[in-house]
């Protein structure tokens, strides 16, 4: 058997590495299909132990003043930034994303969110409200920590998602048991050790590895107060259903089939750049991907010609090369899934293949065994096509022409999903009018994909429940306590003597 590149990964709870008692699986480098590390999965008893560790840590951590918690978390931010390139290299090998991306986006945006929530709670973000009811009575509210929370990560942005979940969780005074995706698990131990080095007490942040069965046991555990899940819609529904049975708090960030609406007056170069970012960044493995590109019929030919001209700037290759901006798909299973959709688009849907297809790129010498696919464009698409209706989660762009803006809005909304949407236009008044009618929780005007820490994001319809990030993102990790104080010295009663 080929030797793994990294040391074995075990569990992490109570502030240190713990030996796992579950089965062993392997993390694979998607660019070459070579092994990266042996991952030791948790057993149910291991999860019980991790949750017990988090329960023991919760009372002291939740009582720690927010400004003190913030200082510790800001130290973790410093460590993340100091080790940005080292962590980014690990993310590149684990996910198959180019280093040019992981070194400028993944670690950076995760650290930004941790910094945001640390500063938010230090500056009074957990303060309650006071209401004077009358001269001798008032109400005050408190935002209190929930307890032990479960985080379930996705494979496309491993360390970023782990930070998006753990940052508000820990800042609010909760503790967390986090399960990375079994497809890209290397970051879990890295983040846990950084938190410990920064001064996060033992048991506050814990890591368990494993597949869906481990995630199901963790999220349904009676010791868990809240579940934060990122992943596909079908799994999210199961997790949310299980959590609802025990009245757990939930945040669900699920999939999408998002529309990019190119309005008739749009600058074509900018619109094409936006459409490419919405489909080919991270090899199309982004939940907010704008895979349904609506183009006015009168602009369709010009749009396609400009798009084809710019496709030469997509550069697959050595993932550590700073010029590479396109990597492989994350796993063999996902590679086969995306290939199936591409073939279905050609053979069954009958869409016109404008670019790409089922073959591997030409510029991947020495990496032919990896899970590479060409960026692919279909045109002359119809709303009824499978490649238009279903989330592919790969670099597959579909072009749909329209005759009127009213038609484009109606068709853009004709999906059970509602994660993201965007418009491109020179007319900002029209942009606001169109965005207001698009049924999505995240919308962009003349750009695509940016999601800063200050911006609360979450899906509509089947794309999720709740939001992450921004000031509203903190509210998802606390519960409200309201207290009414009557100082009159008289208790109002209907049971007085007549």
Walk me through the topology.
Layout: E1 11-13, E2 16-18, E3 24-29, E4 34-40, H1 44-63, H2 66-82, H3 84-95, H4 99-122, E5 130-134, E6 137-145, E7 148-152, H5 158-171, E8 175-179, H6 187-198, E9 205-207, H7 212-220, E10 226-230, H8 233-245, E11 249-253, E12 259-262, H9 268-280, E13 292-296, H10 300-310, H11 332-349, E14 352-355, E15 376-379, H12 386-389, E16 396-402, H13 405-412, E17 417-418, E18 420-424, H14 428-437, E19 442-445, E20 460-461, E21 464-465, H15 470-475, E22 478-486
Helix pairs in contact: 2-4, 2-6, 3-4, 4-5, 9-10
Report on this model:
By secondary structure, the protein is an alpha/beta fold. Helices cover 38% and strands 21% of the residues. The protein has 15 helices and 22 strands. The strands form six sheets. A seven-stranded mixed sheet has the order 14-15-16-13-12-18-19, sandwiched between helices. Strand 8, helix 6 and strand 9 (205-207) form a beta-alpha-beta unit. Helix 2 crosses helix 6, helix 3 packs across helix 4 (99-122) and helix 4 (99-122) runs parallel beside helix 5 (158-171). The longest helix has 24 residues, at 99-122. The model has no long low-confidence stretch (mean pLDDT 97).
